[in-house]
Amino acid sequence: MIxxxxxxxGTYPADIExxxxxxxxxxxxxxxxxxxxxxxxxxxxxxxxCRKNANFYLSHINCMNVNVLHVLNNMMATTTxxxxxxxxxxxxxxxxxxxxLKEQIQQYKLLTSTRSVKIRISLRRAVxxxxxxxxxxxxxxxxxxIDNALKFAPSDTDVLICISSLGETRxxxxxxxxxEGIPADKIPFLFQPFQPIDKGLGGMGLGLxxxxxxxxxxxxxxxxxxxxxxxxxxxxxxxxQCQANPIFKNLIH
Length: 253
Known about the structure:
Largest sheet: 5 strands, mixed
Number of strands: 11
Number of domains: 2
Strand order of the largest sheet: 5-7-8-10-9
CATH superfamily of the largest domain: Histidine kinase-like ATPase, C-terminal domain
Oligomer: single chain
CATH topology of the largest domain: Heat Shock Protein 90
């Protein structure tokens, strides 16, 4: 995290609020990663499971530990606070999108192995082999949306991820579940901070806010496509040749 050179946190109340907002975002992203580590650790401590799948669980724990460090380093290095606003920059990298996506979904192997919900992926042929983007922020968007979908998906259903190309420089991601939909009174507040969809599930109400913020930083946007009794679908766009360009965000309280 970088403080604007023209300000010091504590000089302006708005900067204090921005700092509090950043800490909330950081806590949310760390929580989602640590939850996976706790699940794998608990399974590993089970004597029967330990004998059968020790390497599987240790591999999962190691993967999640690495993800925690990557997310933490990225957030601390690319976020700036000043004038009561958060701004974020990106760290562009050329990635092989199909292999990258496979690695992201691999993280859910433990969770999906204990539930009767599957993650299915569909990539259109026009999707390029390589894209240039901030892979950490893209991973955070995807993880937040998949986590929400799995949270509300009934047993014996699929979470579907479809990726298609829009023109030469844009990718469209579609994440769908077969849950009961988002309550109508929650929809107007979906992308505002600290507005959990279902308080009974212990969410912080920051995942969609963070994801929309990061989608903007990657040259796109995040939106709700549909939500009814048959399920919910979110869409997000990114620029496939995304370069560093600071995005500013006023915190909403």
